[in-house]
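Appendix B. Chain record.
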Amino acid sequence: MTNSALGDPEPTGPSVASEQSGNPTERPNVQGCMGADAQPCESTLPPPATAPPDDGFEQDDDRFIQQDFSQALFDQVQQINRDCGFYDLASDCHVRIYAFRNASLITALNGTESVKFTLTLYQAISQGEAWSYVQILNYGQDLQLLDSERQGDQIILRGCPYDAGAIDAAALCVGEFFLHRDDTVLGITLTHISP
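Structure tokens predicted for this chain:
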């Protein structure tokens, strides 16, 4: 809270809250604290409250929250995932959520079958800009597109051709653009499928 007249912070804490509610409490004894006699302060305040309960998402990672999503940060995400055992089937680290200044990224491993990246943008971007994010999610490589189709408010992308000896190459990448009403992009997924 701030003092509206001065813009200065108002004092807060258990004793101030008690005084404001009409129940005065004793302020901490700070006389002689680290003074000439170099005595440490002893507070009569109760210990601080514990942190709020966990939201259940142990996989949240906010270390990039002050930076925009980029190739360099995606490379770091990949290293963090490897370090936590993301690709180890016995690990509990198969889903990770990374917050960036302009987006959030969910990385999810589906056994040995696929890895899915879901990028949710905080502001809509053009489809041209979205393609640059697809390249990042494709490990810095251009997506070799086999085909694409529009389905309502989504554009489905199929790429990363794999020749398994069939008549048509298999698509080892499937992506989606989630569109806003003006056809700008609000979200992108890219799933890499194991051959």
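Further analysis of this model is presented in Appendix C.
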